[in-house]
Design brief:
two-stranded antiparallel sheet; 2 helices; mainly alpha; Biotin/lipoyl-binding protein; coiled coil; HH_YbhG-like
Amino acid sequence: APEVIVASKAKGRVVERLIERGDDVKSGQLIIQLDSPELMAQLRSAQATRDEAKAQLELSLHGTREESIRNLRANLAQAEAQYRNAQNDYNRNLSVAGKGYISKSELDASRRSRD
């Protein structure tokens, strides 16, 4: 087998040599173990970024649903209040329309507002 010179792209101190000079190795086989504080810091940073993205996803999936439900309930409550107000206005206008205090068009407008 041909002799090959191996170099690492990563900076670090060799903490363990897993083969001896002259050993046969296969492609992808681990031959040394490096201690690289820089790589470990990059790994921890990548893990933190991943964990943050995962938390944001969870918040988006669950928070959005709960927030949407709260918003829909608030919108429903507002629509119900507007309907009650329109119904009250119409009832008042209906009672005074018979006495001639408002015109038929004003009564019709309050009915359209209610409906």
